[in-house]
Design a protein that fits this description.
- By secondary structure, this protein is α/β, with parallel strands linked by helices.
- It has a domain at 252-600: SGNH hydrolase (Rossmann fold).
- Helix content is 25%, strand content 13%.
- The protein is built from 11 helices and 16 strands.
- The protein has helices at residues 6-42, 44-54, 150-154, 189-198, 300-306, 318-332, 390-393, 440-456, 502-519, 534-538, 579-601; strands at residues 71-75, 80-84, 226-227, 248-252, 286-290, 311-316, 338-339, 346-350, 355-361, 366-369, 382-388, 401-405, 414-418, 421-426, 464-468, 527-531.
- The protein has a 7-stranded mixed sheet with strand order 7-8-9-6-12-15-16, sandwiched between helices. A 4-stranded mixed sheet has the order 10-11-13-14. Strands 3-4-5 form a 3-stranded antiparallel sheet, with no helix packed on it.
- It is globular, with a radius of gyration of 27 Å.
- Its main location: membrane.
- Belongs to the PC-esterase family. TBL subfamily.
- Residues 85-97, 127-142 have a biased composition (Low complexity).
- Residues 242-294 form the Trichome birefringence-like N-terminal domain.
Length: 602
């Protein structure tokens, strides 16, 4: 009878209730795990989180905080792009932070003695990554874009576009020609241009291979077009592989850039315009729009998937570095790469797709030696114009896409050799009684043909070679050391406002001619494309760092009482900024190449 009491009743019935609660809890936990796993597998956040944890070396420390309120997603016909319109977050990557060793890649006005070679010794972007002297800047190209398709170019000769400004070299300060009046005939340019331009190049700091990382740190949506051709056609919304990418206009894009100076840890401080105190930001919001098709915003995952298992290499001067860092900044927003660089080259590995981004420094892209030759002393660098740079050629078979940048170093002191015979020189020709057969302008054209022929005939190279044409500088009113300035430029130039630069025009012409000669000699399965950005970027006088080249709080940013402008960089490009368009063009060229081959193979 006692076991029928209320006390006994409670004791007997407590056990079933406890078991029920345990069963319900286990069921809810299992349901939570299933839903959580599905979410992680179904959304990009999963791969991004895994990238942060698994794509960074153990020695790296990343502190990435991006406010979701500052992110805007824009959808295009082909690409979905997440844009960090603004961010107060700071990205720190201890392995990505360069140690300042020796000369910096700054745009400081050098005071080196005439003829003293610039130190191009390698510097590391990371403690482990190499940085080869990448302090050169491309010249601007003008006029109609040259056909990039190899088969078409073989049957056509390209016209040399006209350029806007002066020539400068890497590291920030440039060698420049003040106007086309400094240039004579194509046959005489070498001497006259060299003297005007090159006499000053000795005091120019072409920069080094060191990448100095940036310190972590808008208007109406009206579309204003700047064009140099016709009006936008009705079918401009489509992306057509046959479209001329280099005829179009700059349109205002209120969404802004794909990254900020605070979300890219590999951005060189010299190009960190916002971090260096530049007060305006509108220059970040202009996008290039071809007349006949769309150039979609850069899609990092589209790029990584197209390049799956492949390597892209940026080879050349400091402008090559400028472009490579722009690409890394964009890709960094999707996945944090592993730094696998060494003393010979910078290398960043994206684990999710096994993509490698590489940079190799090569001042002239041809062979350099120092040994005395004939009457040329050991103290002057010798350029073998008919032989490619051995240091880069040994790596060529490893690359699937190669982007080349060269030209400005031909304003530096050097001796030119053909068949081991001294045929010319720049800022060096001691025996005036001897006729100089090759000047610096001709030497550049020969070098372009040499490196491209070497790539096009290499038995083990089957990749895509992209030759980016000269990037124009904008030292208005003079050269870098004679009062030239780009301070206060906030918008692209309008049609008809471009000031032509004779030196850049000639250099671009030599580059195009060298390109056309080389593709006729192509014997392997590689392909070559000319990415003719010169004319396009002549409108972007607003995209340079100007006086905002460092974090120095006491730097001069305005003209002095005598009207003299402060030291400034009007050759390299702010990041983010117009230079990001170069990589949109690179992605489009790669898309045309690989999507076509993928569809045909399937």
């Amino acid at each position: 009878m006692t076991w029928t009491s209320s006390k006994g009743y409670l004791a007997v019935n407590a056990y079933p209730r406890t078991l029920s609660r345990i069963a319900v809890s286990v069921g809810l936990l299992a349901l939570f795990l299933v839903i959580g796993s599905w979410v992680l597998l179904s959304y990009p956040v999963g791969s991004r989180v895994s990238g942060y944890f698994y794509s960074v070396d153990s020695s790296e420390k990343l502190d990435l905080v991006v406010s979701s309120s500052n992110q805007t997603t824009i959808s295009t016909p082909e690409y979905n792009v997440d844009r960090n319109v603004s961010s107060g977050s700071n990205v720190k990557d201890s392995s990505s932070v360069l140690e300042k060793k020796g000369a910096e890649d700054e745009v400081t006005l050098p005071v080196s003695s005439i003829g003293s070679p610039v130190d191009d010794s390698s510097k590391l972007v990371d403690k482990s990554s190499s940085s080869e002297s990448s302090s050169q800047v491309p010249l601007s190209s003008k006029g109609a874009s040259t056909l990039s398709d190899v088969e078409k170019i073989k049957d056509q000769s390209a016209t040399a576009p006209v350029v806007s400004y002066v020539l400068t070299d890497e590291g920030g300060v440039k060698d420049i020609i003040t106007s086309s009046t400094n240039v004579t005939d194509n046959n005489q340019t070498g001497n006259s241009i060299s003297k005007e331009l090159v006499n000053k190049s000795n005091f120019l700091d072409l920069g080094t291979n060191e990448t100095i990382p940036a310190s972590p740190g808008s208007n109406s949506g009206a579309v204003q077009a700047f064009s140099h051709d016709s009006h936008l056609p009705n079918n401009a919304s489509r992306t057509d592989s046959g479209c001329d990418l280099y005829q179009g206009n700059w349109i205002y894009d209120s969404l802004g850039p794909l990254y900020t100076n605070n979300t890219c840890p590999v951005l060189t401080q010299m190009q960190n315009c916002q971090g260096n105190g530049r007060p305006d930001k509108e220059y970040e919001n202009w996008r290039w729009k071809p007349f006949q098709c769309d150039l979609p915003p850069f899609d990092a995952w589209k790029f990584l998937n197209l390049m799956r298992g492949k390597t892209i290499a940026f080879i050349g001067d400091s402008v090559a570095r400028n472009q490579m860092e722009s690409l890394l900044c964009i890709l960094w927003q999707a996945e944090v790469p592993k730094n696998r660089g060494n003393r010979k080259m910078q290398r960043y590995y994206f684990k999710s797709t096994s993509v490698m981004v590489v940079r190799i420094w090569s001042s002239w892209l041809v062979k350099e030696t120092s040994q005395p030759v004939n009457f040329a002393p050991e103290s002057v660098v010798k350029l073998h114009l008919d032989a490619p740079d051995d240091n880069l050629m040994e790596h060529i078979p490893q690359f699937d896409v190669v982007v080349l940048s060269s030209g400005h170093w031909f304003a530096k002191q050097s001796v030119y050799l053909l068949n081991n015979e001294v045929v010319g020189g720049q800022l060096w020709w001691p025996d005036k009684s001897r006729p100089m057969k090759v000047n610096n302008i001709e030497a550049f054209g020969i070098s372009v043909e040499t490196i491209l022929t070497a790539l096009g005939t290499h038995p083990n190279y089957t990749g895509l070679t992209i030759v980016r044409s000269f990037s124009p500088d904008h030292y208005e009113g003079g050269a870098w050391n004679t009062g030239g300035s780009c301070t206060g430029k906030k918008k692209p130039l309008a049609a008809g406002e471009i000031v032509e630069n004779g030196f850049t025009n000639i250099m671009h012409e030599k580059q195009v001619n060298g390109f056309n000669r080389a593709i006729k000699k192509l014997t392997n399965k590689s392909k070559m494309r000319l990415m003719d950005i010169t004319r396009v970027f002549e409108y972007r006088h607003d995209g340079h760092p100007g006086p905002y080249r460092s974090t120095d709080p006491n730097k001069l940013t305005k003209r002095g009482p005598d009207g003299k402008p402060p030291p400034q960089d009007c050759l390299h490009w702010c990041m983010p900024g117009p230079v990001d368009t170069w990589n949109e063009l690179v992605l489009e060229l790669i898309r045309r190449e690989y999507e076509g081959s993928m569809s045909s193979s399937s």
